[in-house]
Amino acid sequence: MKKSTIWIIATIMGFSFMGLLLLQLSYIEEMVKMKKEQFDESVNRSLYQASRNLEMNETLRYLEKDIKQTERRSFSQDSVMVDGLDGTIKQSHQFSVSADDGTVYSSFELKTFAIKPASVPKAMILRTDKNSISEASRSLQEIVRNRYVYQKALLDEVVYNILYTASDKPLKERVNFKLLDQDIRAELLNNGINIPYHFRVETADGREVYRCPDYSDEGEEYTYKQILFRNDPSAKMGVVRIHFPDMNSYIFSSVRFMIPSMVFTIVLLVTFIFTIFVIFRQKRYSEIKNDFINNMTHELKTPISSISLAAQMLNDASVSKSPSMLAHLGGVIAEETKRLRFLVERVLQMSMFDRQTASFKKKELDLNELLETIAGTFTLRVEHTGGKIYTEIEAVDSAIYVDEVHFQNAITNLLDNAVKYRKPEEPLDIYIRTWNEKNRLCFSIRDTGLGIKKEDVKKIFDKFYRVHTGNVHNVKGFGLGLAYVKKIITLCEGDIKCDSELGKGTTFTISLPILTEER
Questions:
Q1: Which of 165, 176, 366, 460 has the fewest C-beta atoms under 10 angstroms from its C-beta?
Q2: For position 470, what pLDDT does the model report?
Q3: Residue 108 near residue 94 (C-beta atoms within 8 A)
Q4: Which residues is 238 bridged to in the sheet?
């Protein structure tokens, strides 16, 4: 599959997953907003009803108190009157309520019945009885009506006392805080809210009168308030403030069921991204593998061709077989066979390291001496280009604990790459330096060669990776050299990094632990 096709599919799927996530987030946000509005409305309704209950309780207290006092000040008077003209007998009850100074401000008369005994025939006694029942019924209605007037008079006095007496009391005496707490809790439960809350009561000018025992400031930024005794003068009003420490948990509990779907969507998105990453990595490995096969074919083809040509010359009877000719052909076969064996061994060596079956025998070495020895073997090759190898031995503690063969091969690989990737027709200079840094022994190999692009520097230690050189094929290899170096340095408990600038050269810096007496 083409790389562009994979990118198109990945982009479409990525936008689809992101769109799904955004829709879920938008839905959750809308649900939270609706739940918050519903919560606000329920709390405000509960507080309003609780304040109404508070006023009704106060009114009830005054009713119970003032009615008893008023009844103690009330008096009744019965009277019977006989009309001398027609002999009518009238019986009535009069009720009155007086003030402390004796002034009567509420009075009413209850007429029970009125009869004319002389005008009622004896033969009509039965009918008169029926008329008496009807009259009694009307009298009862009159009693009820007049009773209402009486109770209204009592209520008038209660209202008068509330208006002119209750509001003069301090807010602390007017409010039963325990009863207010019970009313708030009951009203909240009636509106479907069953979470802890904290409240306090203040005067109209902000002075705190009461706060609940377990009051805390957590969640106080979302405070609901309700005016108490709203019909009183503004200076006499009170304010109850309430907040919910667990309000956010309560609101978000309504969208908790959406969390699994979001988690699954995120898992799918991460899995998709990982899958795309694996696809691209496998595609890159496939390209590297193809490059490796092509390079290996090209590398193996040259020595095989040389050996084959030498064998043909040995078998050709027309070619004279002088001792010098035989020695030359034998040398070619030996060199090319050695080269072929070296290429095969390098591939096998990396395979053994991957399977962790390679033997790695460490021993104590002196890094300064080892680098000077290896530099000496490369002196002729470097001087052949017109350049020179410079060594700066500054390390005092230079003892290391490594595998001599593999570590020497690693350094040889670095120097060999410096010679291979030199600038054509220009002298090559190589600088080798050692120094101590804290408890580490460091050395660097810097060259003035071609250099490496920034995007390639981070990949050069990957197995089979080779920096592209366009159509230039003068440098042979499998892309295993630096991967081998990285593996050896890691097994020696060291670190390696590469700094390079295209056209100016490359520097490899290696840091190793200093050999201590404990080893």
A1: 165
A2: 47
A3: yes
A4: 203, 228
In order, the DSSP letters of 199-242 are: EEEEETTS-EEEE-TT---TTTTSEEEEEESTTS-GGG-EEEEE
Higher pLDDT, 190 or 132: 190
Query: 117 CB contacts (<8 Å, ≥6 apart)?
Result: 87, 89
Q: Quick one: how far is CA 137 from the chain centroid?
A: 80
Using alpha carbons, list the distances in angstroms from residue 458 to 142, 334, 386, 476, 494. 108, 38, 31, 21, 18
Buried b / exposed e across 480-495, counting CB within 10 Å, b at 16+?
bbbbbbbbbbebbebe
pLDDT confidence band for 308 (50 / 70 / 90): confident
- Angle at CA 454, nearest 5°, toward 452 and 459? 80
Tell how far CA 169 is from the center of its chain. Answer: 53
CA 398 to chain CA mean position, Å: 50
Q: Which residues does residue 93 pair with via DSSP β-bridges, in sequence order?
A: 78, 110
Chain-centre distance of CA 461, in angstroms?
Answer: 37
How many residues does this entry show for the chain?
Answer: 519
pLDDT tens digit sequence for 184-219:
889 989 988 888 888 888 888 888 888 888 888 776
Segment holding 233, helix H or strand E = none
The owner of tokens 């043909």 is: 312
For residue 334, the model assigns a pLDDT of 82
Contact in structure between 239 and 228 (CB atoms under 8 Å): yes
* Alpha-carbon separation of residue 347 from 292, 336, 433 (angstroms): 11, 17, 30
Answer yes or no: are the C-beta atoms of 430 and 390 closer than 8 Å.
yes
- Please name the residue that has the structure tokens 């019945």: 113
Split at pLDDT 50, 70, 90, the class of 511 is very high
Which of 12-16, 76-80, 284-288, 394-398 shows the lowest mean pLDDT across its residues? 76-80
Place of tokens 């008329």: 131
The candidate with the shortest Cα–Cα distance to 487, out of 341, 380, 360, is: 360
Residue 91's pLDDT is what? Answer: 58
CA-based nearest residue to 93, from 113, 109, 72, 115: 109
Backbone angles phi and psi of 396, in degrees to 5: -90, -50
Banded model confidence at residue 358, pLDDT cuts 50, 70, 90: low
Kindly report the backbone phi and psi dihedral angles of residue 337, in degrees, each rounded to the nearest multiple of 5, phi listed first.
Answer: -65, -40
CA distance 242 to 39: 13
In 247-384, which ranges are continuous DSSP H helix?
247-252, 258-315, 323-354, 367-384
Nearest residue to 6 (alpha-carbon basis) of 272, 288, 290: 272
The pLDDT of residue 299 is: 65
What per-residue confidence (pLDDT) applies to 126? Answer: 44
- Token pair of 375 as six digits: 């530099």
